[in-house]
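--- STAGE predict ---
source: upstream dedup step, 1 unique chain passed
mode: sequence only
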Amino acid sequence: VRTATAALETFDEQVELDAQTRLDLREERETVKATLPALDERAAMLRSVELTVTSLRAQLAAAEAADRTAVEIDAARQRQLDAGREVTQASARRDDLRTRQRAGFAGVLAQQLEPDEPCPVCGSPEHPAPAVLADGHVDDGDVEQAEADYVTAVRRSQKCDGEVDELLKRLAAERQAAGDQTSEALQVMVDDAETAV
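--- STAGE serialize ---
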């Protein structure tokens, strides 16, 4: 009887304890239920901030790409200027050779004169003082090479112009993707958004 009574008292104490635990758990459940809407709201805010971080990171990547493209543009513009100078130099050389060739035509014609044969210019069969072919005489091959060099320089210049145009288009697209923000400003925004997360 004593053992059964002691066991019954222990059982009664355990029932009271379980009843109190049940009450405590119900209160805790009500507290948790009350916090759920706030937690849902915070979770939605977190998702929103995470989306903002993702978007800002994409903008930052575009801004950094724009920074690299700007450097490429500077180099391409230098190549463009150099190519333009090459065109000018090739054109001047070609024009100089053409002028020198025309100036030397009398010497070329004089080389073809035969005694007692009429001159192709004046028609006289006598050639008392034929022109002399000057040293460094420019022939058709020299002029043709200068023309080919000029055409090559123009093509190179046009290619450089095309590269600059393409880089400028790419830069505009990258800046638009960056929201016209600098990489420095976007880095601050990303850092702030990550802190918010």
